[in-house]
Please model this.
Amino acid sequence: MDFLLSQREELLRKSVREFAESELPPKIETMEKTGEFPIELLESMAKLGITGIIAPPEYGGVGLGYLARTIALEELGRVCAAIPMGMQVHHMAIAALNDFGTDEQKQKYIPPLAKGDTMGVVAVTEPSGGSDVLGMQATAELKGDKWILNGRKCFITNSHTSDFWIVIAKTAEGAKGLSAFIVEKDHPGAKTGRVEHKIGLRGANTGELVFDNCEIPKENILGQEGGGLAVALKTVSESGRTGMAATALGIVNACLEEAARFASERVLYGKPISSLQAISFYLAEIYTELDICRLLCYRASWMKDQNMRCDTENAMAKSYTCDAAVRCARKAVEIHGAYGILQEYKVQRLLRDAMVTVSAGGTGEIGKVVLARAALAPYRKKK
Amino acid sequence: MKTQHIGVFIEQRGGVLHDVGLELLGKARELAEVSKGTVSAFLLGRDISALSDDLIAQGADTVLLADSPVLEPYRLLPYTSVLAQACETCDPDILLFGATRMGVELAPRLAARLRTGLSAHCMDLRLDTEGKLLQMVPGWGGGVVATIRCPDHRPQMATVMPGVMKKLVPTERSGECIHLSVKEDLHRFGPKVLEVHIEEPKEMPLEKADVVVAGGWGIGNPEGWAILEDLATLLCGAVGATRPPVDEGWVSESRMIGQSGKTVRPRLYMGIGISGMSHHVVGMDESDCIVAVNTNPDAAIFEVSDLAVVGDYREILPPLLKEIRTRLPEGRIDTCELPQ
Amino acid sequence: MKRMIVCVKPVPDPNAWDRLQMDPVSKTLIREGIPSVINPLDKHAVEAALEMKDLFGAEVILLSMAPFDAQPVLREVLGMGADRAFLLSDKAFAGSDTLATARILAQGIRNIGEFDLIFCGNFTLDGSTAQVPSQVAEFLDIPNVMHVCDMSILKTESLLLTQKIEQGTVKLEAEPPLLLSFTKEANKPRYISFMEILAAEKRKINIWDNAILNIDETLIGLKGSPTQMADLLLQPKQRKGIRLTGNPEEIARKLADKIHQLGII
Model:
């Protein structure tokens, strides 16, 4: 067993940290105000290799694995979690295309994502909800050489910052009735709807996609007809959950740093408040949470890199880390006392951002359903 | 103690002497008195012989003058050649440079040519019992002071921070001026100078200022704030603030120092009417020297101060401004150097 | 422009300087446990060289005199896009002052062979002497310029340089071979891209000792250094908190004295 990161991964962490610490802070105020993703960062993130980190080199990517991606997202999230939120969904689209796309589709759609020309989207959730995948309303019907798509997708990350979307819709009833499509925003009948204003992860663009008799070329189906559930599940469980977990991991790290710094600088009764036991115990708890989260996230990503099945581990990393981010951010806010609720202190943003990670990318609860199923598996009676 | 012949490189650009040369003459004079030695000023440039009287009046016994068109404007290689030749001729035991942009480029090149030792950015110089030079050098961001010696090589060379040594008051002294010969072909060596551009000073950025005058709630009103601005201008510094003056609109938010503002590390920080809450202190406590003025004798800021004044700034600052004005050379405000 | 050599130096991480301790007997600083980072200004020198690589396809070679354990730091700089690295490392080099260090670096450069330009950071964070660049140039008998805050290439392949001085700037025109030291205004160093991290894993760090450089050992290391450290004192940052008393005029005079002492007026 080996818990050490390689020199490659350490260097990658350092590189992203330097990038994040100098490039992201100047964007935060505007992001918080407007709720828009700083699209101008895509170019520099592409130069660094973040946009195409998991894309294969033959499609313009870097060809690194999921552990590298997790570290990169964590480091971005440590400074501003909205950025890795947008990025991890972007990576989901790359993963979906790479896992299910034809060579033509990969050639056409992966390079612009890897190079950061546009952002990736995987659109599953509808106004009725996201976890109940089979209950979705959007439909696609083959008419001649076109698919005709009707319906709405909501809470879609990167909806307004992308030139094409991977959309799941019903082509028949039942589990085999879902199919995935690559929809370009210029396809007739495709448009973006409202933009959501969230309490946290404000700089990550979230909005609606609307399809009104939208015509999609026949060849733009991604994977098999009826294979949409597999596209959605594999992408969400293998890329989405780790990505969300890594984003929250960055928040936990930031909570520790902000809390520890404030506690050592803030003086009460003639001493820094870190010398008060109540405060120091909070710090000890955040410190431990950070390690738990990190180990969970890294293990799940490492398993994915070893081509091991990791949906349970990903669900565990996601549901634990996002919950931990909320717990840690709350403690960090409390340590700050009244300063914790002032906008100029970072901790209030950490709390708001952490709240959003819980329901995004597969809710904490659905993660726990997966985990409970795994926990009960040995005791399930054969029918 | 062996007598020491001390050389000082006199920096000038465009016929204007840099203060550091005169400051070094002051120190050199002191070391020469201790060792019963002599002081030579090395002055290079074109049409600058008129400056030699000032150098003698401020401590030099001899001015070694290299006056030639090839020495204006300053260029590294011709200067190195002339100085190396001068060192051969007059063989100084000690040779001092200002740690200026020019000095830190020129002194090491010359030291390498003479194959001798050079210490950098000295804060103090002394002679040991044998008359050898002890050079006090800060290191590691100021956390360490090393004493450097150069026992077996001559000259013992050092660059000295500007502003550390004191100029002598000019007196009627006698001295001689020796003209050094300068080879005309020196112009061939090294880069060509296309233009020397002297900039007008702009507003001082807070984080880079050598002097920060910061005000807090205790200033009380925007009128009081004006005197802080005056003091900062006079010291070529920048004005900083705690949160309340920013909230009151006396000063812009870009001037805020502390946890949610900027971190400053100037040579001199003056906190006026600032209580010293830790949110502010973390942004300034690495300043080299901290001076605090506050009416409350128990103000926390005094605990992190080098100099503490218990009193009302309205009474302390006006005489301070007056005192500083009397000590400034004329036109000083125009020559404020903006930091790199 | 065919070959750029960049002198780089690993320095103790400035964020860890407060953990610095001194060995009371040997009067040396204990660097153990303090991580090394590349001297921040050196990154600007590397960037300047990489810009030449982008423009002319010049080869960029890193040169460093440092202990063996400096390799990870060099690996990192290779990740910016440099092609090769040479680490000059030998017990005989230990204790070198700037003159001896410059002699060793100059010999390393001669061993590498032909070059067009040598780039350095304007100073290093640890020693801060800013002396080595001028001295390396002197040993190589080539011109040098410090405080370079801007550089561009003219058609004739000569360089247009802007040098920062206290009062403003000096514009210079210079021809290779040349040694330049850069300030942080010169450029914005690129981040280490993931692509380059992968590529740099295949690049070589050559280690040269004095058996290869073959410098007279009386001219390097402690023995070959004209300057010696006689004493080393840690200066704890402690505020004296001296209270000034007297009438406002007296206090003003004392304050002005202090301001003068600091070299501000």
In short: The mean pLDDT of chain C is 90.
